[in-house]
Amino acid sequence: MDIPNSKLLFLVVSAVLLNGDTGQGQVVANELLDPPEPTYVLRRLNLIRETITISGFSAGSSMATQFHIAHSNLFRGVALFSQAFYRCGPNSLIEFGIRCSKMGYGFLPYKVEAGIRDAKFYEKIGLIDPLTSLKNQKVFIWIGNVDEYVPTDTAIKNKVFYEEFVSKPQENIKLTVANASHLFPTENFGSGCRENAESTYYLGNCSYSGAAQALTFLLPNELKITETFSDEGFDPNRLKIFNQSEFYKGSENISKIGMGTRGYIYIPKVCEDPQILCHLHFNFHGCNEWP
User: Fold this and answer.
1) Predicted pLDDT at 64
2) Which of 39, 189, 194, 218 is the least crowded, having the fewest Cβ atoms under 10 Å away?
3) Across residues 20-42, what is the average pLDDT?
4) Which residues, other chains included, contact 98 with Cβ-Cβ below 8 Å and sequence gap of 6+?
5) Do residues 13 and 197 lie in contact, with contact meaning Cβ atoms separated by under 8 Å?
6) 203 and 186 in contact (C-beta within 8 Å)?
7) 288 compared with 236, residue with greater pLDDT
8) For residue 204, is pLDDT > 90?
9) 52 phi-psi bin (left φ>0, alpha ψ -120 to 50, beta other)
Protein backbone atom coordinates (compact mmCIF):
# COMPACT_ATOMS: atom_id res chain seq x y z
CA MET A 1 0.00 0.00 0.00
CA ASP A 2 1.61 3.24 -1.16
CA ILE A 3 0.11 6.23 0.64
CA PRO A 4 1.31 9.69 -0.39
CA ASN A 5 2.26 12.32 2.18
CA SER A 6 2.95 9.73 4.87
CA LYS A 7 5.63 10.08 7.55
CA LEU A 8 6.88 8.03 10.47
CA LEU A 9 5.55 8.50 13.97
CA PHE A 10 7.94 6.71 16.32
CA LEU A 11 6.42 5.54 19.59
CA VAL A 12 8.85 4.18 22.16
CA VAL A 13 7.27 2.05 24.87
CA SER A 14 9.22 2.48 28.12
CA ALA A 15 12.65 4.09 28.03
CA VAL A 16 15.00 3.57 25.14
CA LEU A 17 17.39 5.76 23.21
CA LEU A 18 16.10 6.40 19.72
CA ASN A 19 19.32 6.26 17.73
CA GLY A 20 22.52 8.26 17.53
CA ASP A 21 22.40 8.55 13.76
CA THR A 22 21.03 12.09 13.82
CA GLY A 23 23.99 13.39 15.76
CA GLN A 24 21.70 14.11 18.71
CA GLY A 25 22.14 10.78 20.47
CA GLN A 26 24.31 12.10 23.29
CA VAL A 27 21.89 14.97 23.92
CA VAL A 28 19.03 12.54 24.32
CA ALA A 29 21.17 10.20 26.43
CA ASN A 30 22.08 12.94 28.88
CA GLU A 31 18.47 14.03 29.23
CA LEU A 32 17.36 10.47 29.94
CA LEU A 33 19.84 10.13 32.80
CA ASP A 34 17.65 12.41 34.89
CA PRO A 35 14.27 12.40 33.14
CA PRO A 36 11.49 14.73 34.27
CA GLU A 37 8.18 13.40 35.49
CA PRO A 38 5.77 12.33 32.73
CA THR A 39 3.64 15.25 31.60
CA TYR A 40 2.64 14.47 28.03
CA VAL A 41 -0.90 13.17 27.50
CA LEU A 42 -1.29 10.83 24.53
CA ARG A 43 -3.94 11.89 22.06
CA ARG A 44 -5.48 10.63 18.84
CA LEU A 45 -3.32 11.07 15.74
CA ASN A 46 -3.82 10.24 12.09
CA LEU A 47 -2.19 6.84 11.67
CA ILE A 48 -1.99 4.30 8.89
CA ARG A 49 -3.58 1.34 10.63
CA GLU A 50 -2.18 -1.20 8.13
CA THR A 51 1.50 -0.35 8.67
CA ILE A 52 2.02 -0.58 12.44
CA THR A 53 5.31 -2.30 13.30
CA ILE A 54 7.10 -3.37 16.49
CA SER A 55 10.67 -4.06 17.60
CA GLY A 56 12.80 -4.77 20.63
CA PHE A 57 16.35 -5.22 21.87
CA SER A 58 17.52 -7.97 24.24
CA ALA A 59 14.80 -8.51 26.88
CA GLY A 60 12.76 -6.01 24.90
CA SER A 61 13.04 -8.32 21.91
CA SER A 62 11.44 -11.08 23.99
CA MET A 63 8.66 -8.64 24.85
CA ALA A 64 8.32 -7.66 21.19
CA THR A 65 7.98 -11.21 19.88
CA GLN A 66 5.53 -12.12 22.67
CA PHE A 67 3.44 -9.05 21.86
CA HIS A 68 3.72 -9.67 18.12
CA ILE A 69 2.51 -13.26 18.36
CA ALA A 70 -0.25 -12.46 20.84
CA HIS A 71 -1.62 -9.53 18.83
CA SER A 72 -0.47 -10.28 15.30
CA ASN A 73 -3.62 -8.75 13.81
CA LEU A 74 -2.29 -5.34 14.87
CA PHE A 75 1.02 -5.49 13.05
CA ARG A 76 2.71 -5.45 9.67
CA GLY A 77 6.03 -6.82 10.92
CA VAL A 78 8.57 -7.19 13.72
CA ALA A 79 12.30 -6.48 14.22
CA LEU A 80 14.22 -8.51 16.81
CA PHE A 81 17.68 -7.48 18.01
CA SER A 82 20.03 -9.62 20.11
CA GLN A 83 17.72 -12.13 21.75
CA ALA A 84 16.48 -15.72 21.83
CA PHE A 85 13.36 -17.01 20.12
CA TYR A 86 9.69 -16.97 21.19
CA ARG A 87 9.02 -18.59 24.58
CA CYS A 88 12.60 -19.74 25.13
CA GLY A 89 12.92 -20.88 28.75
CA PRO A 90 9.43 -19.70 29.71
CA ASN A 91 9.12 -20.94 33.28
CA SER A 92 11.57 -18.64 35.05
CA LEU A 93 14.45 -16.24 34.59
CA ILE A 94 16.73 -18.96 35.92
CA GLU A 95 15.52 -21.40 33.25
CA PHE A 96 16.05 -18.78 30.57
CA GLY A 97 19.56 -18.08 31.84
CA ILE A 98 20.55 -21.75 31.88
CA ARG A 99 18.84 -22.95 28.69
CA CYS A 100 18.74 -19.88 26.42
CA SER A 101 21.75 -17.72 27.29
CA LYS A 102 25.51 -18.13 27.45
CA MET A 103 25.28 -18.38 31.23
CA GLY A 104 24.43 -22.05 30.96
CA TYR A 105 24.38 -22.76 27.24
CA GLY A 106 25.03 -26.38 26.38
CA PHE A 107 23.05 -27.70 29.33
CA LEU A 108 19.62 -28.82 28.09
CA PRO A 109 19.23 -26.03 25.51
CA TYR A 110 15.60 -25.09 24.93
CA LYS A 111 14.20 -26.26 21.61
CA VAL A 112 12.53 -23.87 19.19
CA GLU A 113 10.00 -26.61 18.39
CA ALA A 114 8.62 -26.11 21.91
CA GLY A 115 7.99 -22.45 21.18
CA ILE A 116 6.21 -23.35 17.95
CA ARG A 117 4.02 -25.86 19.81
CA ASP A 118 3.21 -23.25 22.46
CA ALA A 119 2.10 -20.74 19.83
CA LYS A 120 -0.15 -23.29 18.11
CA PHE A 121 -1.65 -24.35 21.45
CA TYR A 122 -2.34 -20.75 22.50
CA GLU A 123 -4.02 -20.16 19.16
CA LYS A 124 -6.16 -23.28 19.63
CA ILE A 125 -7.49 -22.15 23.02
CA GLY A 126 -7.99 -18.56 21.87
CA LEU A 127 -5.27 -16.85 23.91
CA ILE A 128 -3.61 -15.24 20.87
CA ASP A 129 -4.65 -13.92 17.47
CA PRO A 130 -4.86 -16.45 14.61
CA LEU A 131 -1.35 -17.36 13.46
CA THR A 132 -2.53 -16.96 9.87
CA SER A 133 -2.23 -13.20 10.56
CA LEU A 134 1.55 -13.68 10.31
CA LYS A 135 1.41 -15.08 6.78
CA ASN A 136 2.23 -11.88 4.90
CA GLN A 137 4.25 -10.12 7.58
CA LYS A 138 7.95 -9.29 7.52
CA VAL A 139 10.48 -10.28 10.17
CA PHE A 140 13.89 -8.64 10.68
CA ILE A 141 16.41 -10.46 12.91
CA TRP A 142 19.83 -9.13 13.98
CA ILE A 143 22.45 -10.75 16.23
CA GLY A 144 26.12 -10.12 16.96
CA ASN A 145 28.47 -13.09 16.65
CA VAL A 146 30.40 -12.08 19.78
CA ASP A 147 27.31 -11.33 21.86
CA GLU A 148 28.23 -11.79 25.51
CA TYR A 149 24.82 -13.08 26.55
CA VAL A 150 22.89 -14.61 23.67
CA PRO A 151 24.25 -17.63 21.73
CA THR A 152 24.25 -16.88 18.01
CA ASP A 153 22.41 -20.05 17.02
CA THR A 154 19.72 -19.39 19.66
CA ALA A 155 19.01 -16.00 18.09
CA ILE A 156 19.11 -17.50 14.59
CA LYS A 157 16.29 -19.83 15.64
CA ASN A 158 14.00 -16.79 15.60
CA LYS A 159 14.11 -17.41 11.85
CA VAL A 160 13.19 -21.08 12.28
CA PHE A 161 10.25 -20.08 14.48
CA TYR A 162 8.81 -17.54 12.06
CA GLU A 163 9.39 -19.76 9.02
CA GLU A 164 6.63 -21.95 10.44
CA PHE A 165 4.07 -19.17 9.96
CA VAL A 166 5.37 -16.64 7.39
CA SER A 167 4.88 -17.25 3.68
CA LYS A 168 7.83 -16.84 1.28
CA PRO A 169 10.35 -16.70 4.15
CA GLN A 170 13.22 -16.10 1.72
CA GLU A 171 11.59 -12.76 0.89
CA ASN A 172 9.85 -11.87 4.15
CA ILE A 173 12.45 -12.85 6.76
CA LYS A 174 15.82 -11.10 6.91
CA LEU A 175 18.55 -12.48 9.18
CA THR A 176 21.78 -10.57 9.83
CA VAL A 177 24.68 -12.00 11.83
CA ALA A 178 27.07 -9.12 12.43
CA ASN A 179 30.59 -8.83 13.83
CA ALA A 180 29.26 -7.28 17.02
CA SER A 181 28.70 -7.69 20.76
CA HIS A 182 25.42 -7.46 22.69
CA LEU A 183 24.06 -4.13 21.49
CA PHE A 184 21.69 -2.22 19.27
CA PRO A 185 23.65 -1.07 16.20
CA THR A 186 23.84 2.59 15.23
CA GLU A 187 25.62 4.41 12.45
CA ASN A 188 27.81 6.66 14.57
CA PHE A 189 26.96 6.57 18.29
CA GLY A 190 27.99 4.38 21.19
CA SER A 191 30.75 1.93 22.03
CA GLY A 192 32.76 0.14 19.38
CA CYS A 193 30.79 -2.55 17.63
CA ARG A 194 32.73 -5.44 19.23
CA GLU A 195 33.11 -3.75 22.62
CA ASN A 196 30.98 -4.11 25.74
CA ALA A 197 28.28 -1.46 25.23
CA GLU A 198 26.84 -1.23 28.73
CA SER A 199 28.33 2.24 29.31
CA THR A 200 26.50 3.59 26.26
CA TYR A 201 23.13 2.03 27.09
CA TYR A 202 23.86 -0.92 24.80
CA LEU A 203 24.06 1.29 21.74
CA GLY A 204 27.04 0.43 19.55
CA ASN A 205 28.78 2.32 16.77
CA CYS A 206 28.66 -0.27 13.99
CA SER A 207 28.51 2.12 11.00
CA TYR A 208 25.09 0.58 10.48
CA SER A 209 21.74 2.00 11.49
CA GLY A 210 19.72 -0.90 12.87
CA ALA A 211 16.65 1.32 13.10
CA ALA A 212 16.85 2.46 9.49
CA GLN A 213 17.62 -1.00 8.13
CA ALA A 214 14.84 -2.67 10.09
CA LEU A 215 12.16 -0.11 9.26
CA THR A 216 13.10 -0.01 5.60
CA PHE A 217 12.80 -3.80 5.43
CA LEU A 218 9.51 -3.91 7.34
CA LEU A 219 7.93 -1.15 5.24
CA PRO A 220 9.75 -1.26 1.89
CA ASN A 221 7.08 0.47 -0.17
CA GLU A 222 5.67 2.95 2.31
CA LEU A 223 8.58 4.29 4.29
CA LYS A 224 11.51 6.36 3.09
CA ILE A 225 13.38 6.33 6.39
CA THR A 226 16.07 8.75 5.19
CA GLU A 227 13.35 11.37 4.65
CA THR A 228 11.76 10.94 8.06
CA PHE A 229 13.83 13.65 9.76
CA SER A 230 15.35 15.35 6.71
CA ASP A 231 12.53 17.86 6.23
CA GLU A 232 12.59 19.25 9.76
CA GLY A 233 15.63 17.67 11.44
CA PHE A 234 15.58 15.68 14.65
CA ASP A 235 14.33 17.85 17.51
CA PRO A 236 15.01 16.50 21.04
CA ASN A 237 12.21 18.73 22.32
CA ARG A 238 9.72 16.60 20.43
CA LEU A 239 10.69 13.55 22.48
CA LYS A 240 7.93 13.46 25.09
CA ILE A 241 7.41 11.40 28.26
CA PHE A 242 4.01 9.96 29.12
CA ASN A 243 2.77 7.93 32.07
CA GLN A 244 2.23 4.29 31.07
CA SER A 245 0.11 3.67 34.17
CA GLU A 246 -2.75 5.24 32.19
CA PHE A 247 -3.05 1.91 30.42
CA TYR A 248 -3.08 -0.23 33.56
CA LYS A 249 -6.32 -1.06 35.31
CA GLY A 250 -7.71 1.90 37.17
CA SER A 251 -4.56 3.88 36.33
CA GLU A 252 -2.76 2.09 39.18
CA ASN A 253 1.03 2.20 39.17
CA ILE A 254 2.05 -0.06 36.29
CA SER A 255 5.32 -0.92 38.04
CA LYS A 256 3.25 -3.49 39.97
CA ILE A 257 3.49 -5.76 36.92
CA GLY A 258 7.13 -5.02 36.13
CA MET A 259 6.60 -2.20 33.62
CA GLY A 260 8.29 1.18 33.83
CA THR A 261 6.01 4.12 34.52
CA ARG A 262 7.60 6.24 31.81
CA GLY A 263 7.02 5.78 28.11
CA TYR A 264 8.69 7.92 25.46
CA ILE A 265 7.10 9.11 22.23
CA TYR A 266 8.67 11.02 19.38
CA ILE A 267 6.19 12.79 17.11
CA PRO A 268 7.62 14.58 14.06
CA LYS A 269 6.08 18.01 13.69
CA VAL A 270 4.58 17.07 10.34
CA CYS A 271 2.50 14.33 12.01
CA GLU A 272 0.51 17.01 13.83
CA ASP A 273 -0.89 18.11 10.48
CA PRO A 274 -4.41 16.61 10.21
CA GLN A 275 -3.86 16.13 6.47
CA ILE A 276 -0.83 13.88 6.99
CA LEU A 277 -1.02 10.15 7.70
CA CYS A 278 1.80 8.70 9.78
CA HIS A 279 3.26 5.25 10.36
CA LEU A 280 3.44 4.01 13.96
CA HIS A 281 6.30 1.97 15.40
CA PHE A 282 6.57 0.49 18.91
CA ASN A 283 9.92 -0.33 20.49
CA PHE A 284 10.70 -2.19 23.74
CA HIS A 285 13.98 -1.47 25.52
CA GLY A 286 16.34 -4.02 27.05
CA CYS A 287 17.68 -4.48 30.57
CA ASN A 288 19.83 -1.68 31.96
CA GLU A 289 18.56 0.81 29.41
CA TRP A 290 16.18 2.32 31.97
CA PRO A 291 17.60 5.51 33.55
Assistant:
1) 95
2) 39
3) 53
4) 89, 104, 107, 108
5) no
6) yes
7) 236
8) yes
9) beta
Of the candidates 132, 136, 139, 124, the one whose C-alpha atom is nearest the C-alpha of residue 86 is 139
Q: Which long-range contacts (CB under 8 A, 24 or more apart) does 240-243 make?
A: 240/39, 240/40, 240/264, 240/265, 240/266, 240/267, 241/35, 241/36, 241/37, 241/38, 241/39, 241/40, 242/38, 242/40, 242/41, 242/42, 243/38
Predicted structure pTM score: 0.86
Mean of the per-residue pLDDT values for the chain? 83
pLDDT digits (tens, 9 = 90+) for 62-121: 999 999 999 999 999 999 999 999 999 988 888 888 899 988 766 788 999 999 999 999
Q: 173: helix, coil or strand?
A: strand
Q: Which residues have CB under 8 Å from 176's CB, separation 6+?
A: 140, 141, 142, 143, 213
Whether the Cβ atoms of residue 87 and residue 115 lie closer than 8 Å to each other? yes
Q: CA-to-CA distance for 116 and 61, rounded, in angstroms? A: 17
The CA-atom distances, in angstroms, between 191 and each of 21, 169, 198, 201, 249 are 13, 33, 8, 9, 39
The residue among 252, 236, 75, 64 whose CA lies nearest residue 158 is 64
Give helix 59-70 / helix 112-124 axis angle, nearest 10°.
30
Residues in contact with 8: Cβ distance below 8 Å, sequence separation at least 6, in sequence order: 215, 223, 225, 228, 268, 278, 279, 281
Q: Are the C-beta atoms of residues 117 and 55 closer than 8 Å to each other? A: no
Residue 33: how many other CB atoms lie within 10 Å:
8
Q: For 224-277, how does the pLDDT look when each residue is reduced to its tens digit (9 = 90+)? A: 555 554 445 678 888 888 888 877 776 667 777 777 778 888 888 888 888 888
